[in-house]
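Section 5: illustrative case.
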């Protein structure tokens, strides 16, 4: 699949939403609303991942190296940075700062061995609250588990069967979430509770490859669905905190947005989605997502935050803690992206939607 800059920009929007969500102290009401609900950017990642991964699998379904090539590329994309973060958190930090070891291995990140095998979203009590960068890795676990099963399903099912599976999962997911949440099960990081986003993206990949598909046919409906589900999701989340249905609304809104990014002729939208900043942010979003909490945490640990000239301000306000954190995060993301391209020599194709691949 050729590189599509609009999808990089969608990924950039998703990671910026998450970054704002994980950063506090915004004086603007609008930014506070975005901050409170920026976690929805992860749902946009899931939809994009389902769309792109399913597209790759469908396009290579008959190839000889179907499984080998897919899993090799996934490992090369995800594992180097991911396991580097685990090495940093579980080995380097305790060695360099023994006094901080308890914070890494404490109950909220326990059991530590769940992280190397991508089971933290099931075995860690509240995985999103794990220490430092470990707190965002639950979504990578969800995607890795998705990668284990979905290639098999795509390989041995017809497109008609895949369509039925995707639709069934989309409609059954909120029912499952409602049942589990009523029994005090944490649905936020549970793979079975986040499959509708992945399947919504997968369904889109299947639909646009059908012979009778006409992009213009669904544009009006996509706009209506997007403009209705976004405020509805925000309202339900704010008023009722009913995430069992909010996840469904954000999945529908996200798949509509991806469709519009691909096929809408609106100039203002395409100008936003081809903006160099947004596109580049998308290309480094995996590094931003995974490393966002490290710069400021490291500065605090070594008391560098008391020396403002050692920090990384990006605005004239040198007391702006959030600016420093975000600048350090962006630098880490850029470094990871260029190291990835330089050392792994992976062709720069639009081959994956996972958090910045």
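Designed sequence:
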């Amino acid at each position: 699949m050729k590189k599509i800059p609009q999808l990089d920009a969608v990924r950039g929007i998703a990671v910026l939403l998450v970054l704002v969500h994980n950063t506090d102290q915004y004086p603007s009401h609008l930014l506070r609303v975005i901050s409170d609900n920026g976690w929805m950017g992860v749902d946009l990642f899931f939809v994009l991942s389902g769309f792109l991964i399913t597209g790759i699998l469908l396009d290579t379904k008959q190839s000889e190296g179907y499984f080998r090539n897919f899993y090799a590329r996934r490992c090369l994309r995800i594992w180097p940075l991911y396991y580097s973060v685990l090495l940093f958190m579980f080995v380097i930090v305790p060695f360099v700062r023994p006094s901080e070891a308890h914070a890494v291995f404490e109950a909220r990140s326990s059991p530590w061995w769940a992280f190397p095998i991508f089971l933290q979203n099931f075995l860690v009590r509240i995985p999103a609250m794990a220490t430092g960068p470990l707190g965002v890795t639950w979504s990578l676990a969800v995607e890795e588990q998705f990668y284990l099963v979905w290639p098999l399903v795509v390989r041995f099912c017809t497109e008609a069967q895949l369509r039925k599976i995707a639709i069934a999962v989309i409609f059954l997911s909120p029912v499952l979430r409602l049942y589990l949440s009523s029994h005090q099960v944490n649905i936020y990081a549970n793979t079975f509770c986040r499959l509708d986003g992945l399947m919504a993206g997968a369904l889109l990949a299947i639909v646009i490859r059908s012979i009778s598909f006409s992009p213009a046919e669904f544009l009006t409906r996509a706009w209506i669905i997007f403009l209705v589900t976004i405020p509805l999701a925000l309202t339900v989340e704010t008023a009722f905190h009913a995430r069992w249905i909010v996840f469904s609304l954000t999945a529908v809104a996200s798949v509509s947005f991806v469709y519009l990014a691909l096929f809408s002729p609106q100039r203002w939208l395409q100008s936003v989605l081809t903006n160099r900043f947004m596109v580049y942010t998308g290309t480094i979003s995996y590094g931003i997502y995974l490393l966002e909490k490290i710069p400021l945490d490291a500065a605090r640990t070594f008391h560098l935050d008391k020396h403002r000239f050692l920090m990384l301000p990006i605005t004239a306000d040198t007391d702006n803690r959030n600016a420093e954190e975000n600048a350090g995060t962006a630098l880490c993301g850029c470094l990871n992206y260029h190291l990835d391209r330089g050392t792994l020599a992976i062709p720069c194709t639009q081959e994956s939607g996972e958090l910045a691949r």
